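Apologies for my clumsy wording, but can you show me some protein sequence, whichever is easiest, together with the matching structure tokens, please?
=====
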Amino acid sequence: MKKIFISYISLIYIYILSSCISDYEAVGLKDMSGLLVVEGIILEEGTKIFLSRTVSVNDHSSEIDYARVANASIQIIDEAYNIIADAEESVPGTYIVKEHFSFAPAMKYALDIRVSDKHYQSAFVEPLKTPEIDEVSWKLNDDYSIDIMVSTHDSENESLYCLWSFEEDWEIRAQYMTALRYDPDVGAVVPNSPYGSDNRYYCWTSDYSKSLLLATSEKFKNATIKDHKIHKLKPVNSRYSYLYSILVSQYSVDREAAFYFDNLQRNIDESGSIFAPQPSEKTGNVRCLSNPNETVIGYVVASKKTTSRLFIPMAELHLDNLDDKGDYCYVTLDLQESPEGAYIKGYGFYEEIVNYNAFGVPISRYRYKYLRCVDCTYRGGTKNKPDFWPNGHQ
């Protein structure tokens, strides 16, 4: 039996803003390399689709390059075979429908996919209405981890099958604010305004959900999902630095899709494989029209999307002391180095000390700290402040 690696996005079939791909190992299947994997959810406000293939570990080519399926043609079509929208390839294997459109009443939709000389198509599915998110809440645990939970309900008292994805953003800070920095582009010491856009004290970073998040109201009363945990923050972590935000997106799926996703996630959790035995033999709702005997992995759904954003003010809650700054930031170094030499060795300015010689001429001497302590970009942050950020930091 072969071992097969499948390139598979952990958040299965959900519209997410990243094209990062992770690997899962499937054991005990014969001749399962090269299967097409289709991931995506049809949305009115822009759709992202991922194409990849299962990869044998015996293949010595690059797994990522081999797994991603490039140069495909993908369209959203309706039940009358009208082309609703075309997808553009952004990076190999990732296809984006940029234009927005509105679902027509009583109309079903599908993905039409052409890869080389083969023609694939998902089943026509009816877009599902998604209820609003009632609340995204959080709870601080005794170990200072934070659980993030979502609640929703269907006002028409119908059973809910929900999928979620999320995007995280958080503001991080350097340990120390400094008035000077070495700019390697100009080869000189330049002012580092604490409150200007050129400072290295405030930064932002982001992440996204990487696991399938699924729940059903069948476990609750009155078509309600209450305080379902979708994420956990663990200290020590830069998310605790100052201000944290999470945007939760919610999608409705039908019972058959929920059953498929649930089995898929169970297989991944229990065996690391999407090919472990399932109560249902279905591989999804995507078929190869050119060769009906070809196995295709994928389940495409169409859904409305609802969202809700939560902010957690770590600084106000005195949780910023759980930030992973590092004890070494308390070290101040008096180096006999030029500013350029110190920068090359990984040090940043802490302060400038000015002394005067016997002739009254000022002589500057610099004291340094590690760059990570005075430059937030060395902590993984960027100066790309999110448009929705609620404070005036730059």
Residues 255-271 form the longest helix (17 residues).
